[in-house]
Each structure stands twice: as structure tokens, then as C-alpha cells.
Amino acid sequence: MGSVWKRLQRVNKRAAKFQFTVSYHQLTLETTSKWKPNKLSVVWTRRTRRVITDPLPWEPTMKDPLKGVVVWAIPENKEVSVTLFKDSRTQELEDKDWTFVVEDVASTGKKRQLAAAPVNMKKYASIESTQSQLKISLRPTSKKIVGATLECTLSCVFLREGKATDEDMQSMASLMSVNNNGDIATLEDFDEEDEFEEISQQQSLKEVLDLTTQIDLLTNSISESEFASTPMSGK
């Protein structure tokens, strides 16, 4: 049912598809005195889509043993294709968040989410190829973490433009995961003392609000005449 609402919501809209490439340089992680990570990986995710780096060891610094770094001597590149939709009223690209998540990978293979930060891909989308240097402060999602910072380069290449309902503009992963909690790690990824229940409740509330917004937009769309298509503008 969710995929139907998504398709109806996109009627009369334009869309642009972009190829984003992130190049990881350094991850800084500060822990409490009671725990230290094993190996760390960075997950670039939206719903069920997950692009993961190879786990690398966390090395404490000489000045502060509670603050350590993961350094990519050779930057690790990861790519995602992102479809951004144009608001038919403002003719501007709509927001779309992809989230960077830091995970600890234990020697047993168990993964634990430590910190996360959303990045609005609209801010870095451009008709002309661009490259942006990012220093992202991530919000701790575990009480074992004091703070985390990710340094990376984000590149954007414009692929094509078309109607939002065109087959080559559809993201099947997005359509199939409307009610999927893939943005939130599974229960075993958290420590027992972490605030998983609160995060889950916030996510459920967000989904209800999103569905209400979709219904409102559909109602407005039915009552309005079809919007004239206009060329996609740059940033």
C-alpha cells in the first residue's frame, strides 16, 4: 500500500538522478573510560540500502587514550545513485536524507551502532559535477561514546532528468521499504542500556506523520490541474 501512495504522490512531478561518491579519509571517535571499540566501519544508509566500508582498527592517540582515529591511508570510495524530486509548487528539489552510521564490529562479528548523522543530499546536488569536503559531527547513539567526527569528500555527478513516474527514475529499494525501519539498526546492534525504545517510538511517529503528509499531498494534487514541466535548474 505504501508503494502505491509513493507513486501517486509523484504524479506531475519532475525528478533528477545523481551519482554520489563518498571518499572516506578519517574517523575520530571518543569513548568513555569503561570501553573501547574493536574495529569500526561506516555505513551510508537510507532505509534498506546500506553501503558499508571494510572494518578498520581504532587506534588511540598518544595525547588522549580515550580519543582514537581510523585513518584510510588510501581513501575508500563508495557510490550511491539518488533520485531527487522537484516540488511542483516551488520548482525546487525536495529534501532527501542519507545517514552516515558508525558501527563497531566485534571479534565475534556482532555489530553495534555507535553514532549517526543525516546528510541532506539536496544540498550537494548540482547539474555540474561538484566535489565537497565534509567534516561531519555524528550524534552518539550509545552511552559508550562521547563524540565522533567523520572527514570525507562527497562528489556529485548529474545523470539524467525525467518524469518522477518514469521507470528509470524509480528506486525499487525505496518503494519496497516505505514501512521498513532500515534507517535504525536492529536491536542487537545496541547495548541494553541504550535508548532503543525511545528511538523506535520516534521513528514510528515519523512514519505516521509522513503518511499523513502523503495523503494531504495526494488530496491537493487531485484538486489541482497538471503542472507544466519546466527544465531542471542548477543549485
Overview of this protein structure:
This protein is an alpha+beta fold. It has helices spanning 2-9, 172-175, 196-223; strands at 14-31, 39-46, 49-52, 56-57, 59-60, 67-85, 97-105, 111-120, 130-140, 145-163. Strands 1, 2, 3, 4, 5, 6, 7, 8, 9 and 10 form a 10-stranded antiparallel sheet that branches. It has 3 helices and 10 strands. The protein has one domain: C2 domain (Immunoglobulin-like), CATH 2.60.40.150.
Number of E-type strands: 10
CATH level 1 class label: Mainly Beta
Which radius of gyration do the C-alpha atoms yield? 20 Å
Biggest sheet layout:
10 strands, antiparallel
CATH topology: Immunoglobulin-like
**Which geometry do the CA atoms define?**
elongated
**C-alpha termini separation:** 34 Å
Question: Any idea what the CATH architecture is?
Answer: Sandwich
Assigned CATH superfamily:
C2 domain
Strand content: 35-45%
Number of helices: 3
The total domain count is: 1
Mean pLDDT: 78
Tell me the helix content. 10-25%
